[in-house]
Automatic annotation (TrEMBL):
Coiled coil: none annotated. One of its GO terms (molecular function) is endonuclease activity. Residues 341-394 form the HNH nuclease domain. Keywords: Endonuclease, Hydrolase, Nuclease. It comes from Gryllotalpicola protaetiae. Transmembrane segments: none annotated. InterPro entries: DUF222, HNH_nuc. CDD domains: HNHc (cd00085). SMART domains: HNHc. This is HNH endonuclease.
């Protein structure tokens, strides 16, 4: 292991400039800056801790016939010695030594940790997955994988890094993923127990592909956009009761409907569903300037253009052009929303989730968004579309998240106050290992 700490002093001094500090008195921008400095300093402290544990581990495993530091300190293992020296839990000490040993097999990742470029959580996420491939994979391809994952880790969460590392490890060593799939297939089961007091217990373990299909179907029944209604209810829906079912109860009712094989099941399994058409009512002058009020079909009150921009992404758009005196002039051509086929293509391209880093909302529960708005001439095609959850759809329209398309692939960054992150590609964007 090379010397460590060459960049730690600057990071610690950067934090010390703000101390002491009362977080309650900081502005939003100052809190963001402060936490960023704390995180940077933490990475360097973790590097120093790992370096120290690595040395304890090395001195506790000498050449045959030599002395062991751990034993001289009265402990059987290096982990026990670290536990005693640091006052940490036995579990934390064992994890620290395990990380040291794993990183020793991955020099690129180890170097990135020791100079503070990535944190321990991300390093561990990479090491745990890549070490599975080391015995059978080509060393050169492993080194390339290390570099790509380190690059990803400098701007992504540890959870995202772990997901990408799992994919890379499977590519490096396809045999391991095949063995896991075979084992899962052999261990699958589903069981409905004996009824007790009117209820039957259900248990089981399903392969991931089966669970994904079941979850997607049941999520369709649990969707908040799917309301309870009755055929004889009034047009305004005033007679429809509020849906007070829990998510679990909705899942149970969905299970019932799936196996009842009702004729209307195809309509009930939609996730996200069809969205209302947006009528954009303008005068001819406003239309030329790209302005106007937006009306949802069936709603009497107009909404803002900001809301319309979001709705145009997920539903249809039709312009109703009026004269300056309010008389009808013409009905514009209807513009279609993203199709199901386009949504599936975007999901496959971008990783199957909301594209905002850290958001785990699956693609089938997301809304399609025009990166370049319809109002600005953006087309409704895969090269101008992304999938975002409803919350982040609002944030993209008005908040700190920013998107752009580069060679048909979405890139994202976050900007707030004076802090702006680097642009990052979305989804499974690592360089293909087979190309090296």
């Amino acid at each position: 292991m090379a010397s460590v700490g060459s960049t730690a002093a600057a990071a610690l001094e950067n934090l010390l400039e703000l101390l002491p500090v009362d977080p309650c008195e900081l502005s939003d921008r100052q809190v963001v800056d402060w936490l960023g400095r704390v995180t940077e300093a933490k990475r360097h402290i973790e590097a120093l801790e790992l370096a120290g544990a690595a040395e304890v581990n090395r001195r506790s495993d000498p050449e045959p016939g030599g002395d062991s530091l751990a034993k001289r300190l009265g402990h059987k293992t290096p982990a026990q010695a670290v536990e005693a020296m640091t006052g940490s839990s036995a579990k934390s000490a064992r994890r620290l030594i395990a990380d040291v040993e794993d990183l020793a097999k991955l020099p690129v990742v180890e170097a990135a940790v020791l100079d503070g470029r990535i944190g321990r959580d991300s390093a561990e996420a990479i090491a745990v997955e890549l070490k599975k491939a080391i015995p059978t994979a080509d060393a050169g391809r492993v080194a390339v994988a290390e570099s790509e994952l380190v690059r990803l880790a400098t701007g992504s969460s540890a959870d995202r890094v772990r997901e990408e590392a799992q994919k890379v490890a499977a590519e490096l060593s396809p045999e391991s993923i095949d063995e896991r799939a075979k084992r899962a297939h052999e261990q699958r089961y589903f069981w409905i127990g004996k009824e007790d007091n009117g209820l039957a217990p259900v248990s089981g373990r399903l392969p991931v592909e089966v669970a994904a299909k079941a979850r997607m179907v049941l999520d369709g029944f649990a969707s908040p956009k799917r309301k309870v209604s009755f055929a004889d209810a009034g047009d305004g829906g005033a007679d429809a009761p509020a849906d007070t079912r829990t998510i679990g109860q909705k899942y149970a009712d969905g299970f019932d409907e799936v196996f009842s094989a009702q004729a209307r099941i195809a309509d009930k399994l939609e996730v996200g569903g069809d969205h209302p058409t947006v009528w954009v009512t303008t005068t001819e002058a406003e239309l030329a300037a790209g302005k106007g009020l937006a009306f949802f079909a069936g709603a009497s009150e107009p909404t803002s253009v900001q809301v319309a921009r979001k709705a145009v992404c997920t539903g249809g758009l039709q312009e109703v052009v009026l004269t300056e005196t309010g008389a009808f002039l013409r009905l514009g051509r209807s513009k279609r929303a993203f199709s199901r086929r386009q949504r599936r293509a975007m999901a496959a391209r971008d990783g199957g989730e909301c594209i905002i880093p850290g958001c785990r909302v699956p693609a089938y529960r997301c809304e399609a968004h025009h990166v370049i708005s319809w109002f600005e001439g953006g087309p409704t095609d895969v090269g101008n579309g992304v999938l975002v959850c409803p919350f982040h759809h609002d944030e993209v329209e008005k908040g700190p998240w920013q998107l752009k398309m580069v060679d048909g692939r979405p890139w994202v960054r976050w900007s707030y106050g004076g802090k702006t992150t680097e642009w990052q590609p979305v989804g499974s964007h690592l360089t293909p290992l087979s190309a090296t």
